[in-house]
Amino acid sequence: MAKTMQDNNLPPLIAVKSAKFSESESLKKEKELLDKFQSCPSILRCFGDEITTEKGEKLYNILLEYASGGCLVDHIIIKGLPEITVSRCTKSILTALIHIHKAGYVHCDVKPHNVLLVGQDAKLADLGSCCKTSFDGNSSCDDFRGTVMYAAPESIAQQKYLPESDVWALGCSVLHMLTGKSPWAFDSKAQPKAVLFKIGCSGMLPQADTAQEIISKNGFSNGSRCAKSILTALLHIHKAGYVHCDVKPHNVLLVGQDAKLADLGSCCCKTSFVDGNSRCDDFRGTVMYAAPESIAQQKYLPESDVWALGCSVLHMLTGKSPWAFDSKAQPKDVLFKIGCSDQIPQIPTNNKISKEAKDFLAKCLVKDPTARWKVDMLLGHPFVNKADRPTVAGKYHHHHRLSHGIHSLSVYNETPIVMILSNTLVCKTHYEIIGVEEDANQEEIRKIYRTALLNSHPDKLQKSSEPHVRNNHFLEVQKAWEVLSNPESRALYDNELRKSRLDVMNADDVSLNDNDC
Fold first, then answer.
1. Are residues 364 and 413 in the same domain?
2. Residues 238, 127: one domain?
3. Which Pfam families match (predicted)?
4. How many Cα atoms occupy the beta-carbon half-sphere of 42 within 13 Å?
5. Which of 65, 97, 112 is the last residue of a domain?
């Protein structure tokens, strides 16, 4: 990083990338490419180059846009980034790649480490590994380019670099952003040749988190939406005459925020039997989620999947296995308790889960399969219908400072909103989950409204030095103020509040003074 003089048409702060002049061919190439893509807002800007001497050594320097937000990978924590942040970064990277590919180049090293944050804008950087595509659209290099964990199979196996290779690397990067984990999992003792073979030749793909892995980290706060997705999948499976036989969180994969049922290898056909039942010579499924009739009689019904769904939802909501057994329990005792006793998994009686969730579980976890609700009935249950409504904020990402009595005001179905907290006003757009905490009384809500009105007035904010007031954020606050200041529109948007689905955009907080209320 370097400071510049104000009269040289450079920003006050720039970044300087240097190399020994004798070893600067790659850096010179990068400078040429950056000049070529100056018109792309999603590629880091280059302001020129210079040659300097330091300690008697000649250096070649390129002057780059300063990324005040640092490197994207530094923001990826164990749990990953919010999906809206990932989608915004992905759009920026794709915009950059369109320019690069149209110019006949392949980036060759797309990864979070090469995405820099200039303010809130993600910009693709480090074009030094770029290679030119040949007339047939392919590009082969004598040396390997890029980073193994993000490299496409054809790049590793054949040293072939295609525009589609950048797409693979982008997919690995998005997976890393969402999960907080490397796209590939290898033991620290893994041999390099084994790593290269797995990525380049095995046909395997990077693995996304399953619902089970997320539950093992911190529970799963959106069980209703996940349950609805599983029920929708089961409805199709059952209508086709099959039983899944192994519904459990381990077999539910999360594609973004969408839960998808997977692993149909245990499915059995029920239509081959006159009575609609399916019996197998071997046990199918997982004991802890298996229905009593599947364990006791090796009978697999559509209702058996419903039992397994109930066990899965219970696991999602509580973070605990549906059955509690001592580690020394004998297998026969486990099988007897689940398959032959009158016991069912314990549904919590406290207030940790909602009444709708308890009732949903009670409809699923019935010993007699004929008394269990069927999939189409469960799709109409209030617990599942909650998935169509935004829920009260439960667990938020680490960097959202939310306090008691959260309330959000939307500008109807448009993106800008002001998120009002009992002691904080934050300019946001598109927050995913909004609502009023159940224990927030009307007096608290009125106070929050009043605080918002007093502190979001454009005239007052215009005098503020807070970053979120400047540029486009000021327009968002101004637009939100127009809504807040109109009682009729405010009431209308209140009614629509729980119907809106908004995403998040990072912004700085403005502390409120309780004396203003």
1. no
2. no
3. DnaJ, Pkinase
4. 14
5. 65
Choose the catalytic residue: 49, 74, 109, 333.
109
Contact, 208 vs 256, CB < 8 A? no
Asked whether residue 398 is assigned to any structural domain, the reply reads: no
Task: Dump pLDDT digits (tens) for 177-197.
Answer: 988 888 998 888 888 888 999
CATH for 56: 3.30.200.20
| CATH code of residue 381 | 1.10.510.10
Angle at 289 between CA 288 and CA 295, to 5 degrees: 80
Could you tell me the residue range of the domain that residue 502 belongs to?
407-516
492 in a domain, yes or no? yes
Tokens encoding 138 = 């392919």
Cβ-count burial of 432 within 10 angstroms (0-12 exposed, 13-18 middle, 19+ buried)?
middle
The enclosing H or E element of 118 equals strand 115-118
Tell me: the pLDDT tens digits for 96-116? 999 999 999 999 999 999 999
Q: Residues 226, 318: one domain? A: yes
Residue 109 catalytic? yes
Whether residue 302 contacts residue 287, with contact meaning beta carbons closer than 8 Å, is answered with no
Beta-ladder partners of 122: 117
pLDDT band at 80 (very low <50, low <70, confident <90, very high): confident
Residue with tokens 């480090």: 126
- The pLDDT value given to residue 414: 29
Q: Please, are residues 420 and 376 in contact by the beta-carbon 8 Å criterion?
A: no
- The amino acid at 95: T
Q: What is the CA radius of gyration of the chain?
A: 28
